[in-house]
């Protein structure tokens, strides 16, 4: 873990604006300009809609009760216990299925794994941090 942070320069903490807005839009733009294979179209948009709706629901829940955490003690616990972070990752996965974006799906899965293992801390998104107020 120290090799990743010290030698390669990976940050220990990623701001919500960076991991939720900036990097995903750059990845989708990169994918559209290259020949990256797309996800299969059969049923992926319906699954994406369900994931996106679940992400929006978790996001509304976390906005209404910002200090709430989910009781969970298992794999990916650092990510799953924070509703706003889980909402962001679920929404990214849903958008990946709707856009049929392989790169965006791998990015959201990678963020969940890295955040869940504790190697990188994902900042919890809020309206203030996403809009630059905090």
Polypeptide structure, described:
Strands 1-2 form a two-stranded parallel sheet. It is built from 7 helices and 2 strands. The chain has helices at residues 2-7, 16-33, 44-64, 77-80, 83-99, 102-117, 127-130; strands at residues 13-14, 121-122. The chain has one domain (13-28, 43-130). The protein has 134 residues and is an all-alpha fold. It is 64% helix and 3% strand. The mean pLDDT is 84.
Keywords:
134 residues; mainly alpha; 7 helices; globular; 2 strands; two-stranded parallel ribbon
Question: In terms of topology, how is this protein built?
Answer:
Layout: H1 2-7, E1 13-14, H2 16-33, H3 44-64, H4 77-80, H5 83-99, H6 102-117, E2 121-122, H7 127-130
Parallel strand pairs: 1-2
Helix pairs in contact: 2-6, 3-5, 5-6
């Amino acid at each position: 873990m120290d090799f990743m942070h010290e030698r390669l320069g990976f940050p220990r903490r990623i701001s919500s604006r960076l991991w939720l807005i900036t990097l995903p839009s750059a990845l989708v733009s990169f994918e559209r300009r290259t020949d990256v294979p797309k996800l299969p179209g059969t049923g992926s948009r319906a699954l994406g809609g369900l994931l996106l709706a679940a992400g929006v629901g978790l996001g509304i829940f976390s906005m209404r009760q910002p200090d709430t955490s989910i009781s969970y003690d298992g794999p990916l616990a650092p990510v799953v216990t924070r509703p706003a972070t889980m909402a962001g990752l679920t929404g990214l996965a849903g958008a990946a299925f709707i856009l049929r974006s392989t790169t965006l799906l791998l990015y959201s899965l990678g963020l969940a794994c890295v955040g869940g293992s504790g190697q990188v801390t994902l900042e919890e998104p809020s309206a203030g941090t996403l809009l630059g107020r905090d």
